[in-house]
Amino acid sequence: MTSEGKRNWKPQTALVHGGTTRSAFGETSEAIYLTQGFVYETAEGAEARFKGEEPGFIYSRYANPTVDMFEKRMCALEGAEDARAMSSGMAAVSSALLCGVKAGDHVVAARALFGSCRWVVETLMPRYGIETTLIDGTRTQEWEKAVRRNTKLFFLESPTNPTLEVIDIAAVAKLADQIGAKLVVDNVFATPLQQKPLELGAHVVVYSATKHIDGQGRCLGGVILSDKKWIDENLHDYFRHTGPSLSPFNAWTLLKGLETLPLRVRQQTESAGKIADFLADHPKVGRVIYPGRADHPQADVIRRQMSGGSTLICLELKGAKKAAFAFQNALEIIRISNNLGDAKSLITHPATTTHKNLSDEARAELGIGPGTLRLSVGLEDIDDLLTDIDAALGKVD
User: What is the Cα–Cα distance from 225 to 206, expressed in whole angstroms?
Assistant: First the structure.
């Protein structure tokens, strides 16, 4: 079998060839090793493999050749030493957070999180004796004030879901290093092409591969990336014994998604920038938040740590929930869905979907109002999208 390493390839090349392992058949497309287990030539060989004395696969819950190719390709893109692929984005987030802390430890997290991520921090962790504090992540001094003697972990999304706040990753990582904590960054909104958290000092990066990495609405997946030491000492046993493993078929689908990731993200980002500018000038729109615009609240941080805007836009309609619902219902091309990063343009109303379980006060604190909408821009023609948006806004009272 042959394997393609990174070989100092540019991202576009690594995303097509990185980590590829071919069988004796010399297949062009990666093979799907849809198998639960593996056989051994001898009993002695099985013993040696379980002892770690002989390389090879043991059980697909632990590792699988197709999944291994996906992990290696993600490492080549992210610049990480090691990775573990997961069954979903939330499996990746919860595993990354829980594998390295224990009862009595303290976790500090930015309060602007996806609803399920916030539930893990705010509800699940305290059940197991893990103390947690939620802060305004855009204010570096709040990270400093929240630190305790038992603080072991920082967690943030940047840009955040759904209001696209941007947090100074380098500053938070520096603080984590000073106190001996680890920083976990959910990088899904930026994609690994437009932001490199490990280069900025983060210790662990997580993705919902369901989003841009698949990018075509087909399957679930997640991935955690870090240095080999952290994965060996924290994640390896947790992953092996709790079983949040990725299906080989889904891994193959994600490998296909990675091949076109740069093309899709580039086009989606370009379209999102044009749509954000159009919306910002519309009289029925009260506010637009887009990382590619100069009026973004954290524009200076964005210039330092992001190489592109985003495929997502946050907007606030002046007519509150009634206007938001009327706008969504009038759209013809853009579809209502809580997913994002898809080839199809999708829109959702966070207050009644992804963040519905938060209190009114918590949503207001995050800037999620009754008129807030999150738009994920797809690959449709930009003129068609602008026409669809303009016509739908025209039907809002």
Answer: 6
pLDDT at 6: 58
The helix (run of H) or strand (run of E) holding residue 248 is helix 248-280
Q: What angle do CA 334, 336, 341 make, to 5 degrees?
A: 70
∠ Cα 70 73 78 (to 5°): 120
**For 121-175, how does the pLDDT look when each residue is reduced to its tens digit (9 = 90+)?**
999 999 999 999 999 999 999 999 999 999 999 999 999 999 999 999 999 999 9
Instruction: Check residue 233 and report its DSSP letter.
Output: I
pLDDT score recorded for residue 8: 81
The predicted structure's pLDDT at residue 1:
60
The C-alpha angle 230, 236, 242, rounded to 5 degrees, equals 135
What is the overall mean pLDDT for the chain? 96
Domain boundaries, the chain: 262-394
Residue 100 amino acid letter: G
Do residues 285 and 242 touch, judged by C-beta distance below 8 A?
Answer: no
How would you classify residue 153: left for phi > 0, otherwise alpha for psi between -120 and 50, otherwise beta? beta
Interatomic CA distance for residues 208 and 213, integer angstroms: 8
Contact 82, 56 (CB under 8 A): no
Radius of gyration (Cα) for the chain, nearest Å?
Answer: 22
The set of residues, in sequence order, having a beta carbon less than 8 Å from that of 52 and lying 6+ positions away, is none
Please tell me the distance from the alpha carbon of residue 289 to that of residue 269, in angstroms, as a whole number.
14
Q: 169 is written with which tokens?
A: 């990753």
Strand partners, 131: 106
Pairing of strands 204-208, 222-226: antiparallel
Question: Which tokens in the block code for residue 141?
Answer: 């001094």
Q: State CA 241 to chain mean position distance.
A: 24
> Which of 2.60.120.260, 3.40.50.620, 3.40.50.280, 3.90.1150.10 would CATH assign to domain 262-394?
3.90.1150.10
pTM (two decimals):
0.95
